[in-house]
Amino acid sequence: MSAEPLTARRAGLIGCHDCELLVRTDAAGEGHHGRCPRCGAALHARKPNSIARAWAFLLAAAVMYVPANVLPMTVTTALGAAQSDTIMSGVIYFIHSGSWEIAAVIFIASIFVPMAKLAILVFLLVSVQLRCRWRPRDRTVLYRMTELVGRWSMVDVYVVTILVALVKLGAVANIEAGPAAVFFAVVVVLTMLAAESFDPRIIWDVIEEDS
Ligand SMILES: [Zn+2]
Fold first, then answer.
1. Could you tell me the residue ranges of all domains in the chain?
2. Is the pLDDT of residue 169 over 70?
3. 34 CA distance to ligand 1 centroid (A)?
């Protein structure tokens, strides 16, 4: 990092969030809130209130994660007996019945990935708020991972749907999605919004201010 890279902010430019046009900022500088001359979108040097918004979405996601795991994800009726399963009891059921692949998919998609996403975003937010200079490049990679994974977060909802379809086709048992499915979908959406609100450029701002 010997040569200082020229940034848009230093050059007095703002990138439009929507059409990516570089717009010259006038004397108003950093706090300038103009409109993009090409597409009309509001211009911001950084996403506004990104830390506060990301925290709000994250906390809401963490709260919703509790009913998503405590309430039943599936309600199975076989031979007149109803049995409801949470995500974790479903995983344990599949391990016991020898289908460890299905158990692994459910565990990774519904427990490991959402927890990892929440943990990474909390870590990024705390590190930015503490004005941490530790490995900005690696932290940016972490952020990209949460964005990438977000697109696949609905996999779990599909897993439940496919299981429901399979069991219904088998006609041995009747399986329905429980209330946890709704909370789980809410967690997925809130985590995506949190990742979307976070502006990864603020990771680098501290380092730039130093030099
Ligand atoms: Zn624009």
1. 1-45, 47-210
2. no
3. 11
User: Mean pLDDT throughout 183-207?
Assistant: 89
What is the C-alpha separation between 205 and 207, in angstroms, rounded? 5
- Distance, CA 22 to ligand 1 centroid (Å)? 8
- Ligand 1 geometric centre to CA of 21 (Å): 5
Q: Kindly give the pairing relationship between strand 173-177 and strand 74-78.
A: antiparallel
Residues whose CB is under 5 A from ligand 1 (ion)?
A: 16, 18-19, 21, 36, 38-39, 41
Q: Give the pLDDT confidence of 91-144 residue by residue, as tens digits.
A: 888 888 888 888 888 888 888 888 899 999 999 999 999 988 889 999 999 999
* Contact yes or no for 162/177 (Cβ under 8 A): no
In the sheet with 81-85, reading across from the earlier edge strand, the strands are 81-85, 74-78, 173-177
Chain mean pLDDT for the chain = 83
Angle at 150 between CA 152 and CA 201, to 5 degrees: 150
Compute the Cα dihedral for 108, 113, 119, 123 and give only its sign: positive
- Domain with residues 47-210, CATH architecture: Up-down Bundle (1.20)
Q: How far is the CA of 42 from the centre of ligand 1 (A)?
A: 8
- Measured distance CA(62)–CA(190) in Å, rounded: 9
| Greatest CA separation for the chain | 75
